[in-house]
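User: Can you recover a sequence for this backbone? Please restate the input before giving your answer.

Assistant: Of course. Working from this structure:
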């Protein structure tokens, strides 16, 4: 079958959860055993997400192949339970640098290079090639931003052009606001947004409607009329407690059948065992019987929850798998002194990844609190580096111990820049990135008990490491190095001599899925439950 295309876009405002809609469609096609991949288009001119601020843009997600991509990729992988590649990430930056490269090579000699047709052809040809190379039945394209934005205008034009030659279905994700005082669902913003979309030549085949409450039938009727669609193509996507419920909600509205029909594909049976596994994980995530555990996450980007979305999801997957329900206390590292009560209340503490000096001393205080009060601790990347700094300062007595990222004059640089990073001047895509092999040392460690294998693979994103010269000082005082890189050069995990305390240089949260929770998170939540009594 030639590749068919589904375009998910927004015509009203961003932040409505297009990523979750796209992920749910990916899951549905996968449950039917179709070959499907996502493509995400982001209009910014950065080449990739790696140089962006997570405080503004949300988490930078890392793929196996070292790509630093939008956090939506985390959602795609969590739903699909499959590893994706950087081929699925198209940014304005990548498109423009490609077109200029081609122009310099002489690919357009004698022509004036224009957005239409050169840039739009580059996009449509690329999508068709991806479909062909990967043998895809379906490609689901999520268009970042909102129709009408300058940034994605040329991309939407490319989608319109694609729809002239290929089978393309458009899904518009919109918001149906409800004014409390009137108690009525308002369709006017969507009506206006639809007009704008039709002006650029795109008529949606489905409307997915976000809102606080379920779509009322009168609202549906009205929307169907204005969108020129059968009522069945107006899909409810009102707020729910669990994002992973959306594929089943779409299926209960018959959207899978309608979509396949619109794409000109005949009915096929769903893969029963796959559906069962998915449903079992979703049930565990929504179980009301799960016992509560309180986890404190101490970071510097806590005001924007999206900055730590994979950590939050990994906690939820692992807790659900062992019958627990985590409630997260987000603690601002800079204000840690005013959060001592919450630290005391917590059944476990996490310090996640991060960059830059702000909040570092607060994170170190939280780690000390965990170590001295027997609270389970999980340190992720920066959280592991600071676990080493705290141990060096307060157990080894090296009072000025630090990472050279925060104090380049320290004599006790227990964390220092990776030798391979020293000579680099360029910042984009140059960290130690992506999946690397890791060797676990010893069988009596938390990391071995978690993975039950001497060799594992996990994703990375860092420039600093535990200083190999000071490693013996830490080990002599009892800190256990329980995993190293495949070439044995780098420390990958450290553990406290007593209690549950582990730090990983890698990011286990990036590969956690409802159907495959991250083993370190599972061990951590179990330890928290024991701590909770
Ligand atoms: N800033 C630290 C480094 O570059 C930690 C990075 C992270 O937590 N992802 O090594």
């Amino acid at each position: 079958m030639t590749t068919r295309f589904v375009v998910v876009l927004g015509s009203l405002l961003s932040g409505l959860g297009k990523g979750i809609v796209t992920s749910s469609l990916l899951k549905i096609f996968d449950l039917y055993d179709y070959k499907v991949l996502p493509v995400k288009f982001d209009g910014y001119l950065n080449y990739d997400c790696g140089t962006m601020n997570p405080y503004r843009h949300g988490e930078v997600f890392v793929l196996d192949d070292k790509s630093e991509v939008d956090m939506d990729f985390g959602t795609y992988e969590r739903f699909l339970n499959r590893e994706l590649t950087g081929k699925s990430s198209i940014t304005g930056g990548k498109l423009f640098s490609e077109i200029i490269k081609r122009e310099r090579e002489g690919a357009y000699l004698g022509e004036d290079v224009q957005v239409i047709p050169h840039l739009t052809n580059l996009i449509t040809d690329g999508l068709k090639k991806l479909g062909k190379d990967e043998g895809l039945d379906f490609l689901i394209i999520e268009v970042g931003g909102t129709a009408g934005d300058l940034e994605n205008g040329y991309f939407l034009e490319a989608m319109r052009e694609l729809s002239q030659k290929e089978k393309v279905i458009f899904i518009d994700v919109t918001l149906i606001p409800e004014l409390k005082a009137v108690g009525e669902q308002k369709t006017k913003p969507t009506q206006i947004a639809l007009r704008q979309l039709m002006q650029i030549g795109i008529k949606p085949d489905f409307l997915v409607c976000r809102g606080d409450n379920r779509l009322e039938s009168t609202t549906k009727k009205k929307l169907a009329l204005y969108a020129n669609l059968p009522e069945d193509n107006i899909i409810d996507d009102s707020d729910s407690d669990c994002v992973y419920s959306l594929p089943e909600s779409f299926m209960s509205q018959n959207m899978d059948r309608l979509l396949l029909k619109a794409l000109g594909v005949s009915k096929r049976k769903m893969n029963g065992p796959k559906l069962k596994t998915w449903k079992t994980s979703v049930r565990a995530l929504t179980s009301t019987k799960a016992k509560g555990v309180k986890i404190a996450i101490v970071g510097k980007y806590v005001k924007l929850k999206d900055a730590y979305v994979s950590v939050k999801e990994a906690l939820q997957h692992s807790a659900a798998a062992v019958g627990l329900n985590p409630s997260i206390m987000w603690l601002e590292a800079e204000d840690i002194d005013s959060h001592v009560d919450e630290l005391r209340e917590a059944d476990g503490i996490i310090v996640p990844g991060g960059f830059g000096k702000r909040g570092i001393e607060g994170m170190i205080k939280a780690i000390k609190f965990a170590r001295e009060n027997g609270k389970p601790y999980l340190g992720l990347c920066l959280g592991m580096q600071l676990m080493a700094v705290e141990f060096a300062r307060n157990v080894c007595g090296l009072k000025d111990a630090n990472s050279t990222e925060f104090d380049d004059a320290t004599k006790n640089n227990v964390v220092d820049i990776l030798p391979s990073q020293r000579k680099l001047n360029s910042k984009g895509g140059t960290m130690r990135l992506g999946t690397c092999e890791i060797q676990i040392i010893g069988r009596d460690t938390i990391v071995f008990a978690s993975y039950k294998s001497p060799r594992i693979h996990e994703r990375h994103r860092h420039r600093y490491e535990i200083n190999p010269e000071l490693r013996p000082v830490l080990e002599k005082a009892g800190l256990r190095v329980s995993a190293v890189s495949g070439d044995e050069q780098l420390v990958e995990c450290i553990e406290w001599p007593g209690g549950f305390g582990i730090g990983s240089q890698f990011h286990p949260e990036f590969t956690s899925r409802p159907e495959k929770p991250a083993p370190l998170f599972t061990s951590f939540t179990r330890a928290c439950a024991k701590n909770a009594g």
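That completes the design. The CA atoms of residues 52 and 315 lie 25 Å apart.
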